[in-house]
Design a protein that fits this description.
11 helices; Metallo-beta-lactamase, Chain A; about 350 residues; 3 domains; six-stranded mixed sheet; Arc Repressor Mutant, subunit A; alpha/beta
Length: about 350
C-alpha cells in the first residue's frame, strides 16, 4: 500500500492516510482520517463500491467505522474526492463541509445539469472545435454525468475559517485553480492537507469553469492556480498531505519546479503562435498533436490557460472570426518574458 512507501512523518498518531481505488486514469486517491474525540475525514473517494469497501476496511484498521465519523471536509468538488458520499448509508449522519462553489457540481436538478452542459458546449464552440466532433461530444453529454449530484453540504467553508477535525483546528485556505472550489487545510504546526492543489508526481490541471454561475463567462483558471501555488510556496510547511500519491520531500522546491514548467510551456505556446489568427482548438492540436478525443477538454483547458497568461503579459492579440482567434502581438515578436503575476519566479 502507498502509505508504507512513504509514511506520514509528522506525528502519525493523529492522522492516517486511506488509499482508495478510482476508475480514473489518475489512479488511487488519498483520503485522510483525522483521529480524536470527533473523528473527521478529509475527502472520501469516488462513487464506487470498491472505494467504499476500501474506506471501510482502512477505517477498521484504526478501530473506526463509518458511523464513528462526525465531520467530512471535501477539498474540491471532483468526483474522485467527493463521489462516495452518495453511497453512504443513512446512519452516517456526517456534517459535510466544502467551499460554496462545490455546489456548482453537487447540487441536483435537471436544469442545473443542462446549464453545465450548455456552458461547456459554448466553451467548445468558442474554442473552434469542428461541428462533427462537437456532435460526438454532445451525444455523451460531455462526460458531465460522472459528477454525482444531490450531495448535501452542511457547512460552507471560506478563506480563514477554522475546521475542528478530531482534536485539531485546521485553517481553511482558499486555493482556486485546479477547481474553483479548491481549499487546503492548515494545522498550526505546518501540516497541510493540499487536496490536488499540490501533488508530488503529477501537475494539476487548471480546468475551465464559470466565473460565477453556469450562465457566466469562464474564469482564468491557470493564472488563479499559479497564484495559489505561489501562496503555498511561501508557507513554512513541515508536511504536505496530498490528494494523490506520496507527500513531497520539499514543497518549495517542488513548487519552484512547477512554476518553471508552466513558464517554459507558456513560452512554447507563444512560439507555436504565428501572426495568422488561430483558434484555441487549432493551437491545442499544435501543442498536443496526438491528443485523443477523451482528453480534448483537458487539452483545451490547458491551452486556453496559457493564452490567458500570454494575454495578461500583452504578448497576444485577440480577434473575432466567428470565434475568438489569437495571434502573436506583432509589436513583441521575439519577446519572451513572464510577469511575476502570471508565472511566478
Amino acid at each position: 500500500m502507498l502509505e508504507n512507501q512513504h509514511p506520514i512523518e509528522s506525528d502519525v498518531a493523529w492522522v492516517k492516510r486511506l488509499v482508495l481505488p478510482t476508475p480514473y486514469a489518475v489512479g488511487p486517491v488519498n483520503a485522510y482520517v483525522v483521529l480524536g474525540e470527533e473523528p473527521a475525514l478529509v475527502d472520501v473517494g469516488p462513487a464506487t463500491p470498491e472505494a467504499v469497501e476500501a474506506l471501510v476496511c482502512q477505517l477498521r484498521e484504526v478501530g473506526l467505522s463509518l458511523v464513528d465519523i462526525r465531520h467530512v471536509v471535501i477539498t474540491h468538488a471532483h468526483p474522485d474526492h467527493y463521489g462516495a458520499l452518495v453511497l453512504m448509508p443513512q446512519q452516517t449522519s456526517w456534517e459535510v463541509g466544502a467551499h460554496p462553489r462545490a455546489m456548482l457540481w453537487t447540487a441536483d436538478g435537471q436544469d442545473i445539469l443542462e446549464a453545465r452542459i450548455s456552458f461547456y458546449i459554448n466553451f467548445l464552440r468558442q474554442s473552434g472545435v469542428p461541428a462533427e466532433l462537437m456532435r460526438m461530444l454532445e451525444r455523451d453529454n460531455l462526460g458531465l454525468r460522472q459528477y454525482p449530484r444531490g450531495i448535501p453540504i452542511h457547512r460552507f467553508l471560506q478563506e480563514g475559517d477554522t475546521v475542528q477535525a478530531g482534536d485539531h483546528p485546521l485553517q481553511v485556505l482558499y486555493t482556486p485553480g485546479h477547481s474553483s472550489s479548491a481549499i487546503c487545510l492548515l494545522r498550526p504546526d505546518g501540516v497541510l492537507f493540499s487536496g490536488d492543489t499540490l501533488l508530488s508526481r503529477i501537475s494539476s490541471n487548471a480546468l475551465v469553469e464559470p466565473l460565477g454561475s453556469w450562465q457566466d463567462v469562464r474564469r482564468r483558471s491557470l493564472p488563479e492556480y499559479l497564484t495559489s501555488l505561489t501562496r503555498l510556496q511561501a508557507l513554512p510547511l513541515k508536511e504536505v498531505l496530498t490528494g494523490h500519491g506520496d507527500p513531497p520531500d520539499d514543497h518549495r522546491q517542488l513548487i519552484a519546479e512547477r512554476l518553471r514548467f508552466y513558464r517554459e510551456r507558456r513560452d512554447t505556446v507563444l512560439n507555436l503562435l504565428g501572426t495568422e489568427p488561430t483558434t484555441i482548438y487549432q493551437l491545442c492540436l499544435r501543442l498536443f498533436p496526438h491528443l485523443g478525443t477523451e482528453q480534448l477538454f483537458l487539452g483545451l483547458s490547458e491551452t486556453v490557460g496559457y493564452l490567458d497568461l500570454l494575454e495578461a503579459d500583452g504578448l497576444v492579440e485577440i480577434g473575432l472570426n466567428g470565434v475568438p482567434v489569437y495571434r502573436r502581438n506583432r509589436r513583441t515578436v521575439g519577446a519572451s518574458h513572464c510577469s511575476p503575476n502570471t508565472c511566478g519566479r
